[in-house]
Amino acid sequence: MSTAAKDYYGLLGVRRDATPEEIKRAYRKLARQLHPDVSSDADAQERFAEVSTAYEVLSDPAKREIVDLGGDPLAQSGMNGGADSGPFGMGFQDIMDTFFNGGAARSRGPRSRTRPGADALIKLDLELSETTFGVNRELTVDTAVVCAVCAGAGTEPGRHPHTCQTCGGRGEIQSVQRSLLGQVITSRPCAACQGFGTIIEHPCQPCGGEGRVRERRALRVKVPAGVEDGMRIRLAGESEVGPGGGPPGDLYVEVHQRPHDVFTRKGDDLHCRVSLPMTAAALGARVTLKTLDGEEAIDIKSGTQSGAVVRIRARGVPHLRSAGRGDLHIHLEVKTPTKLDPEQEKLIRDLARLRDEERPEPIRQAGGFLSKMRDALNGH
After folding, report:
1. Strand partners, 294
2. Contacts 24+ apart (CB under 8 A), 307-311
3. CATH number among 2.60.120.10, 3.20.20.70, 2.115.10.20, 2.60.260.20, domain 112-161+200-259
4. Digit-coded pLDDT (tens) for 230-288
5. Does the reported pTM lie above 0.70?
6. Which residues of the chain are in CATH 2.60.260.20 domains?
């Protein structure tokens, strides 16, 4: 036989389209008025339990959806089993407790108000020279710190949390269900104290009972030489503190290396391109290149071809986890002049005549094994 669904919105005095924050505020207001330690009304305890149950339902998205569809999530399981209960009004864990714990509910105890803080990640943009040689940077972070007024307790100075009268400090409510398997005792977090077992009636004003406040602070991070793009540096205990003044999490600094105008990085090696005039490539020359370590003289051999690579040892990035450095690879590109005056053109034509290159033949590229076999058969 079905029964009419309770008006959970009416119990809290909120609209059906109320936001979770509005529902929370309404519950807190009513809980302060109806709490047995505060109100002397005869029905205060009963109304307090109803309000707590209404908040439990409406603060759970799945249960609230059932209410909005015209149902009652607590009535579906026979008693207060919840919307996620399984067959016969019990969840899977309740059934397991029936067989292995003799039908008694497993007591989880009250939740601790002190919990660890979350880890955090920030990004740090660095130049190539900074990732190569390392750098010390000052960072500004906006994070949670222990409230100086209540020292993490969450209560006003001189006040203390009170034991929850609804659950007796256990942090959970037990209920008895009758099913085909017999009598089963199940437990759920107490809605009055949110499973903490205690209620803060006089929360600390600066932190609102959280035991922590947000604060902007500066810290320094040492970036080691040789760090690569995308690497993370762990700063232990530098993230936000947890609720109730819990231990802080870790702060991770993710390195992002900005592109460089001259050099590109591949592992611990650096690469760059240098253009040479045709005459310098033919005759040889000494050029000066500005590296990350300063100016470096480079000898260009005569007859250097475009695409040749000059390697300078130990002018790359230091190895992060071992001694030594990578190399600097200089890729040479020979530039052919595009505009010649009459005298320059005459000199080049004279050079071509002296080298018998006035009518050059196409230079055949070295082929693979099959190409060489074909040339041998054709008599080349």
Report:
1. 291
2. 307/331, 307/332, 307/333, 308/332
3. 2.60.260.20
4. 999 999 999 999 999 999 999 999 999 999 999 999 999 999 999 999 999 999 999 99
5. no
6. 112-161+200-259, 264-370
CA atoms within 13 A on the CB side of 207: 29
At residue 20, φ and ψ (nearest 5 deg) are -55, -35
Separation of alpha carbons 372 and 376, rounded Å: 6
3-state secondary structure of 231: coil
**Beta-ladder partners of 285:** 300
Integer Cα distance of 34 and 15 in angstroms: 21
Half-sphere exposure (Cβ direction) of 1: Cα atoms closer than 13 Å: 0
DSSP string, 241-257: PBGGGBPP--EEEEEEE
Domain topology for 264-370: HSP40/DNAj peptide-binding domain (2.60.260)
Distance CA 221, CA 63 (A): 47
Other beta carbons within 10 angstroms of residue 14's beta carbon come to: 19
CB 212 within 8 A of CB 152: yes
